[in-house]
């Protein structure tokens, strides 16, 4: 049986892939030892990705090669603009984060780098390349969230894990992988190499983002 394209990409993105999935930041989320200061800075910076992530999903809808794919992508847009956005606002309130820091904080270099990648791929990337970046962003989060041994006491921690470890999110990540595997089957060597570089770059961005919020 031929190796799946997404497995091929992930295997060639080690050790950074495992560094994301098993990062000590996530372990602190699981066991309740995460300082509010770290969680606050992480969520404030992560929230700055929402607009660019939505735009990237929109670009995927525009470049998709079939109607069923557009429907699946549009469904994810609805989740980001509802459940996830509501979580951010409730968490900001609980953590006492000022409005100015929610909407216009000074951006960390790791945040800037990941936003630049999303914007570049939105403007210039093929459907395969957009899927590659989306898959890294969602698949890494599913894998680290699935490691949670139990539900933390704080809703800020618990719901962030639950947003990325539930049947709907698992189905979404499975769909992303299957879609990228489908598209990847028709790519030539140059296109596959381009996707690999992007997969590795996005994985590095995920590592850097966790590192930026962990001492």
From TrEMBL:
Pfam families xrefs: TENA_THI-4
Enzyme Commission code: 3.5.99.2
InterPro entries for the chain: Haem_Oase-like_multi-hlx, TenA_E, Thiaminase-2/PQQC, Thiamine_Salvage_TenA
Keywords annotated in UniProt: Hydrolase, Thiamine biosynthesis
Pathway, per record: Cofactor biosynthesis; thiamine diphosphate biosynthesis
Record bears the keyword Zinc: no
Domain of life: Bacteria
Signal peptide: none
Thiaminase-2/PQQC domain location: 12-214
Catalytic activity: thiamine + H2O = 5-(2-hydroxyethyl)-4-methylthiazole + 4-amino-5-hydroxymethyl-2-methylpyrimidine + H(+); 4-amino-5-aminomethyl-2-methylpyrimidine + H2O = 4-amino-5-hydroxymethyl-2-methylpyrimidine + NH4(+)
Keyword Lipid metabolism tagged: no
Recorded family membership: Belongs to the TenA family.
Function according to Swiss-Prot or TrEMBL: Catalyzes an amino-pyrimidine hydrolysis reaction at the C5' of the pyrimidine moiety of thiamine compounds, a reaction that is part of a thiamine salvage pathway. Thus, catalyzes the conversion of 4-amino-5-aminomethyl-2-methylpyrimidine to 4-amino-5-hydroxymethyl-2-methylpyrimidine (HMP).
Protein name per Swiss-Prot or TrEMBL: Aminopyrimidine aminohydrolase
